[in-house]
Amino acid sequence: MIQIRDLHKHFGDLHVLKGINLDVNKGEVLSIIGSSGSGKSTLLYCINGLETIQQGTVHINGTDVHAKNTDINKLRQKLGMVFQQWNSFPHLTTLENVALAPRIVKGKSKEEALELAAKQLKHVGLGDKLKNYPVSLSGGQQQRLAIARALAMEPEYMLFDEATSALDPEKVGEVLDTMRLLAEEGMTMICVTHEMSFAREVSDRVAYFHEGIMEEIGPPQQVFEDAQSEHTRKFLMNVR
Amino acid sequence: MQEPISFFTGFNPNDLWFLGEAALKTLWISILSITVGSVLGCIFGWILHESRFAGGIILAPILDVFRSVPLIIQLVLFYNFAPIVGLDLNPFLSGVVILTFYTASLVSNVARGGIESVDMSMRRASRSLGLTYWQDLFHVVLPIGGRTVFPAWIGVVLGVMKDSALVSVLGYVELLKASQILITRTQEPLLILSIAGVFYFALSYPISLYASRFEKRWAK
């Protein structure tokens, strides 16, 4: 499980996260909503150690992410991450994109890695694009490629950082469907998202962030219908 | 009547061999300097990118000197002053040393540009997959950034190849020096310089040809 205790993050004078406490259990789907600059994405970066923290702790299965003696590269294999920009490696085919990390990080043989990559690409519906270069794929396809690439490391957790925000509106659905599929398969997921219908229908819990504070967390029903905080109600009113 | 003594003799086919051999020397000195200089330049470029102190304060000014002072001055100064500190190098080695540093100073900025052309977000994505810093650098940054700055690097290669002609001032008989020798003997500068030009072209053209083929293949 992921345990976050009293997490503080500063960017210079900017206090981005102001004491976050959060537990995410295995098998759970947590959506994080909130306006831009509320610290949602930064939280994800702190969870897999892409950002340093100034105070508090993050534990993954009991391992302290930010401890000096933690092998962060090993720990990150447990945490798949999908970004707003899809970041496909342009010099590799989709198959090689997915096979790269299993091959060089996990030391799998080339055949093994390619086989695994093909399996994951079929899983996200890109079975017919194995030999394509990313440049010939649409945004939605590239984002699904990014999901397959993360899945190929066989992670226990998936972090989604506004995975659909940079997509053309008509491509959002296919990526959300893939995320839905993962949730149904029991993947533990933390999704920073602006897709309220996704947050509502797929999540087990929804958290609302406001200016670096987690103001609200609970089952979707409760957050969407009966929010306790004034800010949450205002936000939800505006996005609907 | 006594035959007049002739100081000059005409251009003969053997002279072509002489020029050809000199062209090989130009090629050799270029390959050596460009290879070592490029590797060194990549390391320097990485330092410029990574370290504000070692890169920005120490290395950058030194590289600026090598980039800004005309090569011919660097060559003459180094060749004549190196013996003072006990480095007694022949013209060939002096030429290689200076051309190497000159190449490195040009490549360092190309390399830094290459590293910086790879988006922060891309590097985070590769790190998030569990790649170490070095794996990210070699498997993601090098191939992606390398392709971006490849044309700039080819520009440096062709430039250095032509600039290697300046090593002739140290007395090393490469293509340009060989041409000068023949001109003195035959008094036919137009012909000989044209031939030397053709040799330089023959050395450079395959490189630009291969380069554009690579670029076309990558563009697919």
Automatic annotation (TrEMBL), chain A:
Compartments it resides in: Cell inner membrane
Coiled-coil regions listed: none
Membrane topology annotation: Peripheral membrane protein
GO cellular component entries: plasma membrane
SMART domains: AAA
PROSITE patterns on file: ABC_TRANSPORTER_1, ABC_TRANSPORTER_2
InterPro entries listed in its UniProt record: AAA+_ATPase (IPR003593), ABC_ATPase_HisP-typ (IPR030679), ABC_transporter-like_ATP-bd (IPR003439), ABC_transporter-like_CS (IPR017871), MetN_ABC_transporter-like (IPR050086), P-loop_NTPase (IPR027417)
Keywords per UniProt: Amino-acid transport, ATP-binding, Cell membrane, Membrane, Nucleotide-binding, Transport
Domain of life: Bacteria
Domain (ABC transporter) ranges: 2-236
Matching CDD domains: ABC_HisP_GlnQ (cd03262)
GO molecular function, one term: ATP binding
Main localization category: membrane
Family classification: Belongs to the ABC transporter superfamily.
Protein name: Amino acid ABC transporter ATP-binding protein (PAAT family)
UniProtKB/TrEMBL annotation, chain B:
Location(s) in or outside the cell: Cell inner membrane; Cell membrane
Domain ABC transmembrane type-1: start-end pairs: 23-211
Main location: membrane
Top-level taxon: Bacteria
Entries under InterPro entries matching the protein: AA_ABC_transptr_permease_3TM, ArtM/GltK/GlnP/TcyL/YhdX-like, MetI-like, MetI-like_sf
PROSITE patterns named in the record: ABC_TM1 (PS50928)
GO CC list: ATP-binding cassette (ABC) transporter complex
Keyword annotations of the record: Amino-acid transport, Cell membrane, Membrane, Transmembrane, Transmembrane helix, Transport
Region forming the signal peptide: none
UniProt key word Transmembrane: yes
GO terms, molecular function: L-cystine transmembrane transporter activity
Membrane-crossing segments per the record: 27-48, 92-115, 136-161, 190-211
Membrane topology annotation: Multi-pass membrane protein
Keyword Cytoplasm: no
Family: Belongs to the binding-protein-dependent transport system permease family. HisMQ subfamily.
Name recorded for this polypeptide: Amino acid ABC transporter membrane protein 2 (PAAT family)
Organism of derivation: Marinomonas rhizomae
